[in-house]
Specification:
The chain is of the alpha+beta class and 240 residues long. It contains 7 helices and 9 strands, in the order ββαβββααααβββααβ. The radius of gyration is 18 Å and the shape is globular.
Length: 240
């Protein structure tokens, strides 16, 4: 709403409270979050913001461009490598045609021994493999930016529109990882009010189908988009 109002550079550092996260040891119900948005920028620009911020802080606090985490020494010198979600799943034996077909994706996860089925959500199948076989190995020597998530997992992000040959099946979302830890979640903001409403309604129906808490679509947000949001990028980065 602030971007729509004409503010082009926005940030806040505040406490966040989420008691419905995963069982991961890295999620606390209360944590500190740095969130920022830039008008007339996309997720590529936000990637540069992120890596340069971490590099600056490491050098400022530690005196060198290096972070130590549980015995791992990670060189945070920019630029950081980029890798697509599709490429990561291909590395663990899930080819793109399987990844993009839900029934095939479910069967591939079952072959790997995961307890999922066609009644599972897309996210459940995705994370059964991602959290066990991919995430723990990300960014061990050098931070890595994981980008271009399936649209089902990026309700607020703009579609890729053909970048990297991925097409509209994927969205301009990225996460940065250091030593197996997710640092942030970012994307090019979806600024089409019609598509945004459709995507949020689809997400709502999925939650209802799975018996999860139902959150109504924020109509004031949709009305703001109808007034016109500039092309924009944003990021939410965990400070703790």
């Amino acid at each position: 709403k602030l971007l729509v109002s004409g503010y082009e550079k926005i940030f806040q550092i505040c406490k966040s409270f989420r008691n419905k996260e995963t069982d991961s040891q890295f999620h606390n119900p209360e944590f500190t979050l740095l969130e920022w948005y830039r008008g007339f920028a996309d997720y590529e620009a936000i990637m540069e913001d992120t890596e340069k911020l971490v590099e600056f802080l490491a050098e400022k606090i530690r005196g060198r461009k290096e972070i130590l985490w549980e015995g791992h020494s990670v060189d945070v010198t920019t630029p950081w490598p980029r890798v697509t979600v599709v490429e990561l799943f291909e590395q663990v034996g899930i080819e793109r045609d399987v990844f993009e077909d839900f029934e095939k994706f479910v069967k591939a996860a079952q072959v790997k021994g995961y307890d999922v089925g066609v009644e599972s959500s897309y996210e459940d199948v995705f994370f059964s493999i991602f959290l066990n076989e991919i995430e723990p190995n990300l960014g061990m020597d050098k931070p890595v930016i994981v980008k271009d998530y399936p649209v089902e997992m990026a309700a607020l992000a703009k579609r890729c529109e053909g970048e990297n040959g991925l097409g509209e099946r994927y969205a301009q979302r990225f996460e940065a990882y250091i030593a197996g830890v997710e640092l942030c979640n970012a994307f090019t903001e979806l600024n089409d009010p019609i598509e945004q409403k459709e995507r949020l309604e689809m997400e709502r129906k999925e939650r209802q189908k799975l018996g999860k808490r139902d959150y109504p679509v924020d109509q004031s947000f949709i009305r703001a988009l109808e007034l016109g949001m500039p092309p924009s990028g944003g990021n939410a980065l965990g400070v703790d």
